[in-house]
Amino acid sequence: MSTALTPPAEARPPVRHPDAPAPGEPLGAHYAYCFGCGGGQPHGLHLEARAGEGVSVTAEFTVTTDHQGAPGLAHGGVLATALDETLGALGWMLRVIAVTGRLETDFRLPVPVGTVLHLQAEVTAVHGRKIYSTATGRIGGPEGPVAVRADALFVEVKVDHFIDNGRPEEIQAAMADPDQVRRARAFEVNP
Ligand SMILES: CCCCCCCCCCCC(=O)SCCNC(=O)CCNC(=O)[C@H](O)C(C)(C)COP(=O)(O)OP(=O)(O)OC[C@H]1O[C@@H](n2cnc3c(N)ncnc32)[C@H](O)[C@@H]1OP(=O)(O)O
Fold first, then answer.
1. I need a surface site. Which of 2, 28, 61, 183 has the fewest CB within 10 A?
2. Could you tell me which residues belong to the region Disordered (predicted)?
């Protein structure tokens, strides 16, 4: 793991938000057109995440023929997306909006089409806006061998990050959708 992903000595253990979803609760998509979790992307990952214990989440992603790199095998970038999306879902447990600053991925086993990738992610430390986290993706069941893993640094941002940087068409459509506004507001209110 690179030094950029090693929390500084003064970093704190993560604290589960009191209003975080209960363990086992489905987290749903944060945006219908998200390539990782949205239902509106026909070739997307349709990753389904659930709240875990502490500051953790679990997720499942089924590799389809849309996700190939080599014949019959998942593309490494798609697997990195699955790890990134699962790590991004940790924001629900802290109730902050955060984006990926750095993602370091190890690919340990090839992942064939048809495989269910069982993902688990947890926050390991928080320092200011910096959120340090780690994730695994297992095959053959939730306790199967680790096929992919990642260490990451997410950086907390405000909703303005998306409003200022996103394309106006999609931003306006999202802001006109009451469900989307409700999801964004859920993260904005911090103790
Ligand atoms: C509506 C609901 C939607 C909910 C939306 C949820 C979406 C989840 C989707 C899945 C996750 C994604 O793919 S998100 C999409 C992919 N990621 C992105 O597009 C992010 C693009 N990058 C950026 O916008 C920016 O670089 C930021 C926001 C990450 C940081 O910029 P900034 O806000 O100006 O802050 P900055 O001062 O640079 O950095 C803050 C601290 O983090 C450190 N830091 C920043 N980047 C790195 C890095 N790569 N490696 C090491 N350290 C880093 C800095 O050194 C600093 O440490 P110190 O000096 O404080 O010690």
1. 2
2. 1-23
0.90 surpassed by complex ipTM = yes
Domain hosting residue 140, numbered range:
10-157
Instruction: Please state whether the predicted TM-score (pTM) of the whole model is above 0.80.
Output: yes
Protein residues with CB under 6 Å of any ligand 1 atom: 4, 30, 84-85, 88, 97, 99-102, 128-130, 153, 155, 157, 162, 183-184
Out of 45, 85, 96, 99, mutate this one to test ligand 1's pocket (max ligand atoms within 8 Å of CB): namely 99
* Rounded-to-integer distance, Cα 118 and Cα 147, Å: 10
Contact 86, 134 (CB under 8 A): no
Q: What is the CATH number of the domain that holds 56?
A: 3.10.129.10
- Atom 13 (ligand 1) nearest CA: 100
Residue 129: its pLDDT value, please? 98
Please report how many Cα atoms fall inside a 13 Å half-sphere around the Cα of residue 67, on the Cβ side.
29
Total structural domains within the chain: 1
